[in-house]
Structure formats: structure tokens, C-alpha cells
């Protein structure tokens, strides 16, 4: 368990630090980058939020709040609180046209910064739980690496970076956005900022 949680945080930190991110869109308070490597596409969304970083961390690390701002989350329940920094959630997503609804079993690991210059981290990856085998109604999907890094800008503002490493499995959701516009990603980011503020 310690290894899985460490590798979850490490994978997100590694993804964030990769060179070669290309900016694809800038709004006033939102920037969107992509990073391509083989058949893996990574996404980074940066938001300027007018609340303290510790508050953003508290709100974003509790995934039961997620469906309040992310329409890709239909339901979210805690399956297991491993310890105060690690929880395993069961998430369902609404069906896309012609697809079954999707479900995920994810480990969410959170870390507070050791130094003021370091970010708060909320890392997400899929895990396997024998108590939650795939069910025929859902298409069990995998999150390779996703999550948030939250940097403090001042006592009352912070920068929230959302990362998601996308494989072909998650592509139906993003393909429309990346080819046409990144509108849905921006909408979700705006909803997230509204929720936080």
C-alpha cells in the first residue's frame, strides 16, 4: 500500500515535470496544455483561483464533492479510507452516445507541502479491488495518472493545475474537444473555479 500510494504521487510529480508541454488555449484565468508521447496524450489545465491554497486542497482532495462541478462524475462513493491521506473511491460516469456508462475504482492520495514553495498534491490512479469486480452494466475504465497540484500565490489566491494522462480508452470523451475546441475542458475548469470560490 505504501508503495502504491508513493507511486501515485510520484507518477503525478513526474508527469507535471515533463518537458515538451504545448499550450493549446488561454482564457483569462485558465490555460490548457497538452503533451503527446506515443499513444499517450496528457492534459494540463491551469486555473487561477481566488481562495487560499489549503482551502482549495481541502475541497479538491475530497472526491465526494466532485460531482458538484464535474459532469463526468455521475456518482462517487468512498469504498475504503486506507488512512487519512489515502482513500479508494468508486466512481461512475454518464454514458456517451453508443457507449455503456463507465465506472472506475480509483485511489486518491493527498500530500501537504513540506516547504512553502512546494505544491499541495492530490494524485489519482485506478486500482483493482477484489470486492469491486467489473459489472456487466458498466465499462470498467482505467485512469493511468491524474490529479491536482495546488500552488499558493498569496494568502487569498492559488494556482490549481489539473493533470490527466489519457489513453485511447478515455479518448471518446476528449477526442471531440481536442479536434474541435477545448470547450468542454474549459467549461469544466470554469465550473471547478466557481465551486472553489
Automatic annotation (TrEMBL):
It comes from the Eukaryota. GO terms for molecular function: lipid binding. Residues 18-166 form the START domain. Pfam families: START. PROSITE patterns: START. GO terms for cellular component: cytoplasm. InterPro entries: START-like_dom_sf, START_lipid-bd_dom, START_lipid_transfer. This is Acyl-coenzyme A thioesterase 12. It comes from Fulmarus glacialis (Northern fulmar).
Amino acid at each position: 500500500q505504501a508503495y502504491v500510494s508513493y507511486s501515485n504521487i510520484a507518477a503525478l510529480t513526474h508527469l507535471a515535470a515533463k518537458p515538451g508541454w504545448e499550450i493549446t488555449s488561454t482564457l483569462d484565468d485558465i490555460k490548457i496544455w497538452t503533451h503527446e508521447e506515443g499513444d499517450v496524450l496528457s492534459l494540463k489545465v491551469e486555473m487561477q483561483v481566488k481562495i487560499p491554497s489549503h482551502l482549495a486542497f481541502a475541497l479538491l482532495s475530497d472526491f465526494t464533492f466532485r460531482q458538484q462541478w464535474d459532469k463526468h462524475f455521475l456518482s462517487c462513493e468512498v469504498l475504503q479510507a486506507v488512512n487519512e491521506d489515502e482513500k479508494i473511491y468508486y466512481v461512475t460516469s454518464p454514458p456517451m452516445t453508443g457507449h455503456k456508462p463507465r465506472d472506475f475504482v480509483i485511489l486518491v492520495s493527498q500530500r501537504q507541502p513540506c516547504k512553502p514553495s512546494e505544491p499541495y498534491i492530490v494524485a489519482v490512479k485506478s486500482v483493482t479491488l477484489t470486492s469491486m469486480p467489473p459489472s456487466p452494466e458498466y465499462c470498467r475504465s482505467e485512469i493511468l495518472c491524474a490529479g491536482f497540484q495546488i500552488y499558493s500565490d498569496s494568502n487569498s489566491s492559488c494556482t490549481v493545475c489539473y493533470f490527466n494522462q489519457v489513453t485511447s480508452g478515455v479518448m471518446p470523451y476528449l477526442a471531440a474537444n481536442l479536434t474541435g475546441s477545448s470547450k468542454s475542458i474549459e467549461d469544466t475548469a470554469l465550473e471547478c473555479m466557481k465551486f472553489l470560490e
